[in-house]
Known about the structure:
The mean pLDDT is 96. It is built from two helices and nine strands; from the N terminus they run βββαβββαβββ. It has helices at 35-51, 99-112, and strands spanning 13-16, 19-24, 29-32, 58-66, 69-78, 84-90, 116-120, 125-131, 136-140. The chain starts with 12 loop residues before the first strand and ends in a 9-residue tail after the last strand. It has a single domain, classed as Alpha-Beta Complex (tt1808, chain A). It is of the alpha+beta class and 149 residues long. 21% of the residues lie in helices and 38% in strands. A hairpin with a 4-residue loop joins β2 and β3.
Amino acid sequence: MLSLNLPAFETKIALRDEKSVIFDIIRKRYVALTPEEWVRQHFVHFLISHKGYPLSLMANEVLVDLNGTKKRCDTVLYTRDLSAKMIIEYKAPHIKITQAVFDQITRYNMVLKVDYLVVSNGMEHYCCRMNYENQNYFFLENIPDYPAL
């Protein structure tokens, strides 16, 4: 797999039915190793190991009901009272981060109303802090450490 702009971690990759799978530490099971999943696993390990995010407050493939349509958020970070705090959307490394990607995560946020939106393709990472009072958002230079959220 492609080297990403994220720290390396000890991957657990196996073959199942002649297809590569990778162990997801959040879902605690092996999942298909797609380019997007490669980014997800690197980013999740980065958040846990380098930014102090608690594994127990993160969930992958979170189902949301958006105007009667079921959608899945790639990763959601929750607070200790289990309200959603951050949505993270992943794209494969060859997918450019465009306005359409931000439009997608913004639609998810219409349901969850989080404080932070993060988008990554493994090479580029963007983090927005929502300001509901002024009905806008601003980009942060870095992904915040968990204690700073």
